[in-house]
Design a protein that fits this description.
The structure holds two protein chains of two kinds.
Chain A (H helix, E strand, L loop, with lengths): L4 H4 L5 E5 H11 L4 E4 L6 H10 L6 E4 L3 H13 L4 E6 H17 L5 E7 L13 H7 L3 E2 L4 H18 L3 E6 H4 L1 E6 L16 E2 L2 E2 L17 H4 L3 H22 L6 E3 L18 E6 H13 L4 E6 L1 E3 L3 H8 L4 E5 L5 H12 L6 E2 L14 H17 L5 H12 L12 H6 L2 H8 L13 H15 L7 E4 L24 H12 L3 E7 H7 L1 H9 L4 E7 L28 H7 L4 E5 L4 H13 L3 E7 L14 E3 L9 H6 L4 E4 L2 E4 L9 H5 L5 E3 L3
Helix pairs in contact in A: 2-3, 2-7, 4-5, 11-14, 18-23, 19-21
Chain B lengths: L27 H5 L2 E8 L4 H14 L4 E5 L9 E8 L14 E4 L2 H6 L9 E5 L18 H11 L3 E4 L1 H8 L5 H11 L7 H11 L5 H16 L3
Parallel strand pairs in B: 1-4, 4-5, 5-6
Antiparallel strand pairs in B: 1-3, 2-3
Helix pairs in contact in B: 2-7, 5-6, 5-8, 6-8
Classes of the chains: A alpha/beta, B alpha/beta.
């Protein structure tokens, strides 16, 4: 499918869309005028697609410098009466959280949707925080889609809802929903300038019309300091209004179309003599977890009613009461934290309903990591087995079963992954499976980060510094892969931009050599303020800005260091060198890390410098398209002493040991010459044609 | 294998079963009306594109289909896998030992994913290895390919080993490796979609100037499995 179809597809067409593609179509159908993000997996593709489509979709789109700015861009657009969309990975909302918290107070006029993509099991993240907590923290409604179709449906619903209640709405996805493909039925694109847009954008009795220069609809900001300036006197009123608003929203969630009960027709449930039949159990679930529940209940034909919650906050109390009224016990299945479980227990307690809840809090479901059908299958089976073994036939006995699980040891995570295989597979297969090498992600062939890491370690070695005395403060990006051998150039990492503040901190806390590494995009994101802090507080560390001219790890989005904006238009290029100089650094030097000798010398100089030394290691990412292909390298076997330094110290995907000989893969080699320069025997040279 | 093309849900499922089962018994109708494929390999091999082509072909034949794909960090030379589930499913993850087919782009990755299979699983795979770049700093070495193929053949009845790199070169470019494997999967008797709809979906998803070469690659993979049946 061509991505352009996300704009051109007709209503009724059915496309096989990724969750993130469906989010884009949702934004288009909802008539979003302004969208902003900072790239982060699992939400990255939304931005990468809008980069290509925004102009055709009558949308302004930007890759903001960080998530907080993206939040502010979206909030001001929505306040000005147009629809806005901001999206980010779960930890991105941490960055945006300061402004995010206040948007619930100030409210919006045009619809505003905040999509947060959580990453259970941490496929590409530093933690697996559950961002549903943020909805509760900010008192902002949350929708949780389970599949791509629902992402689109919920986007459209959320914009209308946001406009109606004048509050931003959170859509919480997870990796398995954002990166799930499914059939999505395309809907109509909302006509711009229709009456659904509120009267706030009518100025002096005339409707404010889009200016000719922009391809997106513009709004109009009507001043109202008591609503938009949260000084204490105002915010006290705003908080009260927000609580009242939430009370109104609570009435709506109970009848939301996104909260659905799937029930089986109990036409022959009395056929069996088994006393267990008198027990009736149900399941409450949301998001991806619901999919597993549904497949297991269907695949094994279990007699369980399911309440699927899509509108999950505020918690739909009346609907819950209605669902549990005939049940003897209820399962609650959610990823990651037992948030709804606690709400459920509160609802049951408040209404004096005495039925057991089987969830994370009593060790029925594992506490962390994403769920799978196997986890759900096993957990259901464990409870069912207990019921059958105990010959449990009434609600009181069921409490004993629940207690039995409560008394078990903490169920942290599921580890029965290979059980099914072991039952089937022979010892021979198990031996083979146990002897496999790992395949961790690695720096690409020709990546400048590899050369920079090699050079800094070489410099340390030449200066006689023990490796344990060199602290590598790392950051978020491809260069975090330096954590693995043979580089081992990542010792400490907290968050985006943390390498700079950590560098300063370590230089105050220890006398070790401190080396911070950050990428160009991450430096713009949150590295500048701590650099100023470091210079001002007379810290002593080397900051390397690995400027590979893109935001590589998330798929190659532009950043302020490039002369292009979020819609592919020409934009001012911001100089990292000038920023570092303006921050007060007196040691600011740019080097091409592929020049090993020069880079090693520069590192020696920087390490010996007293103060904050900034090295800008500038070399474009090899994944950027349209670069001139350099000639690949080859090994001169007459000179090669088989010391294997190239293999052992570089771990380049293009160099392998085949039948005891070093072999360079001509297709994979990018001709960076790092191996040529580091080879003591000078046995690697440009391949002859 | 697949007969039920409607997305029925619990509401219109007339069968009621009770809690009185000591072991969960599989609902044969639910599982027989479906086909699941676990596709695995290494970042950059064209696995996701191949999976989307199969998914689109399934839709064209009127089936429901869901698919899971992993992006991000794993793309930097790491393991990449997708899971395709054709039939009345909502979740895009295949239960342990439930895959009808494992389509492997790389031999070690096939072995790594065997927990998704059972003895009825059709294992179609490329025998050309991609050796992890940090292999020398690892405890385990890369296993001998002969041993991998033999062990698989000795233990699983439906194993089809494809010299994918060679067939791709013959088709015109190593870049067509994914099309060779797509053709190979299509050649297995249990594969529920027709070669015609796979080819038509390939044409919808890939640039026209490569259609001829890709077509050759699909035919080569298809033929390679047919010759092993």
């Amino acid at each position: 499918m061509e991505l352009k179809k996300l704009v051109t597809a007709n209503a009724g067409e059915k496309l096989f869309l990724l969750g993130n593609e469906s989010a884009v179509r949702g934004a288009i159908e909802a008539g979003v005028s302004v969208a902003a993000t900072y790239p982060g997996t699992p939400s990255s593709e939304i931005g990468s697609i809008l980069y290509l489509l925004a102009k055709d979709a009558n949308m302004y789109f930007e890759f903001s410098v960080n998530e907080k700015v993206a939040m502010e861009v979206a909030a001001t657009a929505a306040t000005s009466g147009i629809r806005s969309f901001t999206f980010m990975k779960h930890v991105g909302l941490n960055v945006a959280s300061d402004s995010f918290m206040t948007t619930a107070y100030t409210g919006v006029n045009g619809g505003m949707v905040i999509l947060t993509a959580d990453d259970p099991s941490m496929f590409s993240s530093q933690n697996e925080q559950d961002n549903r907590h943020y909805g509760r923290l900010a008192k902002m409604p949350i929708l949780e889609p389970s599949n791509p179709q629902e992402i689109k449906d919920m986007m459209i619903y959320a914009f209308d809802f946001s406009e109606k209640f004048k509050i931003p709405v959170i859509i919480r996805t997870t990796t398995r929903v954002s990166h799930m493909r499914g059939i999505v039925e395309i809907g109509e694109i909302r006509k711009l300038d229709n009456n659904a847009f509120n009267n706030e954008i009518i100025v002096n009795n005339t409707s404010y019309i889009n200016d000719k220069d922009s391809h997106w609809k513009k709004g109009y900001f009507n001043k109202n300091p008591s609503q938009y300036i949260p000084v204490p006197a105002n915010s006290a009123v705003m908080h009260k209004d927000l609580v009242l608003k939430l009370e109104e929203i609570k009435k709506v969630v109970n009848s939301s179309d996104f909260n659905i009960i799937y029930s089986k027709t109990p036409n022959n449930s009395n056929n069996s003599n088994n006393s267990i039949n008198s027990l009736k159990l149900g399941v409450i679930s949301s998001g991806s977890a619901f999919n597993y529940v549904w497949d297991v209940v269907n695949g094994y034909d279990l007699d369980l009613d399911i309440l699927k919650l899509g509108f999950t906050y505020p918690f739909p109390e009346e609907l819950i009461l209605d669902f549990v009224k005939d049940l003897d016990g209820v399962f609650i299945v959610e990823e990651v934290d037992p948030i709804m479980e606690k709400e459920l227990l509160a609802v049951l307690g408040k209404n004096s309903i005495n039925i057991p809840v089987f969830g994370k809090l009593n060790n029925v479901f594992p506490l962390i990591y994403e769920f799978t059908p196997d986890i759900i299958h096993t957990s259901f089976k464990n409870v069912f087995d207990s019921i059958n073994n105990a010959n449990c036939d009434n609600n009181l006995n069921l409490f004993e079963i629940a207690d039995e699980f409560s008394n078990k040891s903490l169920y942290i995570c599921y580890d029965g992954v290979n059980e099914a295989c072991d039952e089937i597979a022979s010892d021979e297969i198990i031996d083979l499976m146990d002897s496999l090498p790992n395949r961790p992600p690695t720096l690409c062939a020709g990546c400048g980060h590899r050369s920079a890491y090699f050079a800094v370690k070489k410099a340390g070695e030449e200066l006689g510094i023990d490796e344990k005395d060199m602290i590598f403060a790392s950051d978020i990006g491809c260069y975090t892969l330096g954590v693995s051998p043979p580089y081992e150039t990542a010792d400490y990492l907290l968050a985006m931009g943390s390498s700079v503040g950590d560098g300063g901190g370590f230089s105050k806390a220890t006398n070790q050599v401190v080396l911070s590494f950050i990428g160009d995009s991450t430096f713009f994101h949150s590295g500048i303020a701590p650099l100023i802090n470091g210079v001002h507080n007379k810290d002593n560390f080397v900051l390397t800005i690995l400027d590979n001219r893109t935001t590589a790890m998330t798929g190659g989005q532009p950043n302020p260091g490039l002369p292009v904006d979020g819609m592919g238009s020409v934009a001012p290029e911001i100089s990292i060198e000038k920023i570092a100089t303006a921050a007060g650094c007196e040691f600011v030097k740019t080097v091409n890390p592929l020049n090993l000798k020069k880079t090693v010398e520069l590192y020696k100089e920087a390490i010996e410098y007293d103060g904050v030394a900034v090295i800008i290691a500038k070399h474009p990412c090899t994944l950027i398209k349209g670069q001139v292909k350099r000639k690949p390298m080859e090994v001169d076997y007459e000179k090669c002493s088989n010391c294997l330094d190239c293999i052992n110290l570089l771990a380049c995907p293009a160099i392998s040991l085949i039948d005891g000989k070093v072999v360079i893969d001509y297709f994979a080699c990018k001709g960076c010459t790092t191996c040529t320069q580091m080879c003591k025997e000078r046995a690697i040279k440009v391949k002859r044609d | 294998m697949i007969t039920n093309k409607n997305d029925s849900n619990l509401n219109n499922n007339g069968n009621t079963h009770n809690l009185n089962i000591n072991e969960f018994i599989k609902d044969e109708k639910f599982f027989n009306d479906s086909y699941t494929i676990f596709i695995c390999g290494v970042g950059g091999q064209g696995i996701i594109k191949t999976s989307v082509i199969i998914g689109d072909a399934a839709i064209a034949e009127g089936y429901n289909v869901v698919m899971s794909e992993i992006h991000g960090m794993s793309q930097r030379g790491g393991v990449v896998s997708t899971e395709l589930k054709i039939g009345n499913f909502k979740s895009s993850i295949i239960e342990e030992s439930q895959a009808d087919m494992i389509l492997g782009f790389e031999p070690v990755e096939v072995v790594r994913s065997l927990n998704k299979g059972n003895t009825d699983t059709k294992i179609v795979f490329n025998t050309n290895p991609i050796i992890p770049p940090n292999i020398n700093s690892q405890k385990n070495s890369y296993p001998d390919i002969g041993r991998v193929v033999k062990t698989l053949k000795d233990n699983y009845p439906y194993v089809y080993n494809i010299d994918g790199d060679k067939l791709a070169q013959e088709a015109g470019s190593i870049m067509t490796l994914n099309m060779v494997l797509l053709g190979a999967a299509t050649g297995e008797n249990s594969f529920p979609l027709s070669k015609e709809s796979i080819i038509s979906s390939m044409k919808d998803n890939l640039k026209e100037n490569f259609h001829e070469m890709n077509l050759k690659a699909i035919e080569k993979g298809f033929g390679s499995v047919k010759s092993q049946l």
